[in-house]
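Sequence and structure are kept together here, with a separate record for every protein. An example record follows, reproduced without changes.
>
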Amino acid sequence: MILLSARDLTRQFDADPVFAGLGLEVRAGHRIGLVGPNGSGKTTLLKILAGLDDADTGVVESPKSIRVGLLEQQPQLDASSSLWDEAATGLQWLYELRTESETLAEQIGHDASPALLKRYDVVHAALEQHAGFQIDHRVAEVLEGLGFGPDEFHRPISTFSGGQQARASLARMLLTDPDVMLLDEPTNHLDIAATEWLESFLVRARPAMILVSHDRFFLDKVVTQILELRPDRLDSYPGNFSAYRRQRDQKQERLGRQARKQQDMVARTEDFIRRNRYGQKHKQAADRIRKLERLGDIDQLDNFHVPPMTFGDPSRSGEIVVEALEISKGFDAPLFDNLTLRIERGQRLGILGPNGSGKTTLLKTLLGQLAPDQGSVRLGHNVEMAYFDQGLDAIPKNLDLVEAIRPPGDLDVTPGQLRGLLARFGLSGDIVLQPFGLCSGGEQSKTALARLAALNPNLMVLDEPTNHLDLWARDGLETALCEFTGTVLFVTHDRYFIDQVATHVLVIEEDRCRIHDGNYSQYLGFRENNDVPVNEPVVPPPKNSPGPENDSPTGKEETVRPKRQFPYRKVAEIEADILEAESRKDDLEELLADPEIHRDTDRMQQTITDYEIVQDELDMLVAHWEEAIELN
C-alpha cells in the first residue's frame, strides 16, 4: 500500500533550485535512509512531505486516513508542560479513548442499552489493539530508553537543556505512532546507549519511515533502502548504508566503463566519417553522423566531495604523552574517581560514556584546563597540544575564516597559505572571507579543524569533532586522523567514527572507567562475552602446563577440526555458482540504474526483492567457499 507519494517536486530559494523534478513513494514497511551532502535539501524535502513547506512545483499525495509526523531538528514544545505531559501528548487520543471507556462502563451499570454496549465494544477493541491499557508503561519505557530518569518525568520542560528538549520531542514522535515518520537527525543529542535503544525501537516499529542521519552505524542497523538526493532526482539503492556505498561504487565504476567504451566508439566512428565522408562509403558516413547526433551522454554519478584533510607532520613527543595518576573529579556528584591513565605516543584513544558521565570534564582535566579534586596529571616531554571544543568557542565570531585559522602571533604565514589550508578542509572561494559567526555549523567545524592543522600539534584533543559534518567530510576526517603520526584523544557518539579511528577506547561506566585495546566493534565483542573482563587480556596457559591443549593421551597437542556449517562441495563448483550469482547481480544493478524502471512501481519493487535475494545468496556462497578452502 502506498502511504505517501510525491511527483515532480521543485524547491527554489536563490537563482538555482535546491532540487527539481523529484519523485518518490513510501509504502507500508519501508524504512528509508535519505542521504546527501549538507545543503542538498534533505530537511527541505522532509518539510514538504510533511506539509510544513510548499514546493514550487509538484504534488504530495497520501490517503486521507494516513497520518504523517515530522521530527524537526529544532523542536516546538510547550514550555509550561512537564516532560511526561509533553511526551504523552502523542497518546492523547488513547487517553481520551480510555476515559470514554471508563465513562461508558459507568453508564452501562445504570443502563445496558444496545447502543452503549456496541460503542463500549468498539472502544474496548481499539484500546486492546493499540495497547491502550498500558499507556503509562509505554510513556515510561520510551522516556527511559531515551535517557531520562524517573525523577525527571514531572519536571517542567523549560528546565531541560536544548538537547534534552530535542529528546523529549523525539519521545513524543515515537509515542504518536504516525503511519509515516519523517525523522530529521533523530540521534542528535543521544548518547550511544540511547541510540542503540532507538535502533531497536525503530526496527520493531509499525510505521514506515524516512530517516535523515549522519550516523552510519544507525543507518546500517535501521534502514532497508537508501535514497540519495541529487539536484534532479532521487536515486534508490536497496539495503542499508554499507550496501548503498558498495553498490554506488560499483555503479560508478560500471558507468565509467560504459562512458569510456562510448568515447572509444565515438572516436572510431568519427575516424570512419573523416575517411569516408566524400568517398564511396559516403552514405554509411552520413548514417553514422546521424547516429552520433542521436547519441546521448552516459549519465555519471556526482562525485560527492571528500575533503583531502591532512594534519601535517608534527614534531616527535616523548613516549608517554599524558599520564594521570589516581585522579578524581566531580561537581554536585563525582564524575570519575581514582582513575589512572597513560596515553602513549601514536595512540588514538576514544572516550565513550553516557550523557552527563563527565567525558568533556575528563578531557579538560587531562589538558590541565580543570584541576582534579585529587590525583595528578602531567603532559610528557615535548608535547604540543591543540584542542577542538564542541562549542567552537576558541574562535572569535567576527574574524573571517582566513584570519580565524592563523596561529597566534604568527604573522609570517601568508593569506595564500591559509587559503590553501582551508581548501584542504573543503572551504574555498568567497566563503573564506565571511565572518566565522555567520557560517553554517559544518563550515565552522571545518574551520576549527583547519585551525588545528595550522597549529601543527603532536597531541590533538577533539570533543565531538563530527558534529555538523556530513558523511563525506567525516570520511575525510577519519582518513586524516588515521594518517596523523601524532597522538589523538577524542570524544564522540559516532560509533562508525570510533571504529575507523580508535586504537583504544576508554569506557566511562556508572561505577568505574575501563580501557580496552581496539576499536568500538572489538569493544562490543568483549562486552558481549560476559566471561571475559573488558580490560584484561586472555592469556593462554604455558604449553607445558595442564590444560585442554595438553590432554591428549600422547602428550602432544591435537588440532580440533572445526565442524562444517555447509555440506561438502568442491571449491570449483562453488566458484562457478559465485560467478553465476555475480552475473545475475550485475544484470539487476543495470536494471535498477535504468530510469524507465522507476516508472513501474511493481516492477521496481520486484527487482529490489530479486536483488536482495541474490545478494543473500552471494553472501552464503562466499561463506561456503571460505569454509571449503579451509576444510576441504
Remarks:
- The longest strand covers residues 2-12.
